[in-house]
Amino acid sequence: MIPGPFEYHRPASLAEATGLLAELGDDAHVLAGGHSLIPMMKLRMAAPEHLIDLQDIAELKGITREGSEIVIGAMTTQHDLIASDELAQAVPLIREAALQIADPQVRYLGTIGGNVANGDPGNDMPGLMQCLNATFELDGPNGNRHVAARDFYQGAFVTARGDDEILSRIRIPVPAPGHGFAYEKLKRKIGDYATAAAAVLLTVSGGRCDSASVAMTNLSDTPVFAAEAGAALAGSDLGGAATDAAVAAMLAAIDPAEDNRGPVAFKKHVAGVILKRAIARATKRANERAA
Ligand SMILES: Cc1cc2nc3c(=O)[nH]c(=O)nc-3n(C[C@H](O)[C@H](O)[C@H](O)COP(=O)(O)OP(=O)(O)OC[C@H]3O[C@@H](n4cnc5c(N)ncnc54)[C@H](O)[C@@H]3O)c2cc1C
N or C: more exposed end of the chain, with fewer CB within 10 A? Predict the structure, then answer.
């Protein structure tokens, strides 16, 4: 299908882009990598009259370290995330997850900002950002504000972002040195969205878990930060009983729907299996890195 007609705008600065968005209102959408928006336009499920392309805005690109945080510009591509050795050193979970998104062609254009702003429960980065306790910066006519990734998602394709705001940067607290991490994703085939995915981050000392964070993808109409699952692991020996308790807490937090990826019972089963795998791999890594 061919998208409906639209006017194309290519601002050179964030201020120009937010000005255009405020002026054009609901009729305008920002365009990042286009790998979610353009397919929606081709299906006529989105029909913006104006597209504001963020491609030329240099201040929205790049990965920097600011004290104890990694700051990633919204227009940084998934390929850029994978290619950054500094990011892989500080927050290795991001490279591991980004490598499981789609295929290289999509990752060369798809951006982290588009992935988290989209609000699609199938996107991998939102759950990942909740696991990492990231904060999203939003810029609009009333200036700049910060929203925690854990508070950002309200429903499928509904977020805390105002229509006149652009998601400009993502701030990620650098996890403790030697932390364990894993992103486990089950998909029907290479390049597919998740049937279920689990992000786990944890720290270990003296054989016990000091802290743990768990988030799940595509198992509700929003990503699910499973706080109780993390709490079940924290303070434990990360053995079978603690893992079972974390899985039970996660299952109480998700609400999958039947679709072409399977019935509800199957999705819950898969969610349990991949969370167990993610906890086991994160634990192994934490123990190896601590040794
Ligand atoms: C074949 C295929 C397979 C895929 N598989 C996966 C997968 O396995 N996992 C996964 O996570 N994703 C997958 N994707 C989606 C891909 O990662 C997209 O690139 C991503 O979801 C959106 O990023 P984008 O930069 O392309 O955003 P766009 O498509 O340009 O924008 C998406 C939406 O977000 C809004 N938006 C974009 N940037 C901003 C911003 N900075 N501020 C405010 N609003 C903004 C747009 O207006 C639009 O509504 C797949 C896509 C394809 C085509």
Answer: C
pLDDT at position 63, please? 98
274 within 8 A of 280, measured Cβ to Cβ: no
Q: CATH number of the domain at 58-173, out of 3.30.465.10, 3.60.120.10, 3.40.50.2300, 3.30.1540.10? A: 3.30.465.10
Residue 136 is predicted with a pLDDT of 98
| 270: its two tokens | 């898969």
Angle at 130 between CA 126 and CA 134, to 5 degrees: 100
Residue ranges matching CATH 3.30.465.10 in the chain: 58-173
Task: Look at residue 220 in the predicted model and tell me its pLDDT.
Answer: 98
Closest CA to 219 of 122, 96, 116: 122
For the chain, residues with pLDDT lower than 70 are: 291
Give yes or no for residue 169 CB within 6 A of ligand 1.
Answer: no
Sequence-ordered strand ranges (E) for 174-259: 180-187, 194-205, 208-217, 224-225
**What confidence score (pLDDT) does residue 121 get?**
96
144 strand-pairing partners = 139
**Amino acid at site 239:** G
CA nearest 124: which of 35, 42, 52, 55?
35
Give pLDDT, residue 58.
98
Considering the entire predicted model, what is its pTM? 0.97
Nearest CA to ligand 1 atom 19: 110
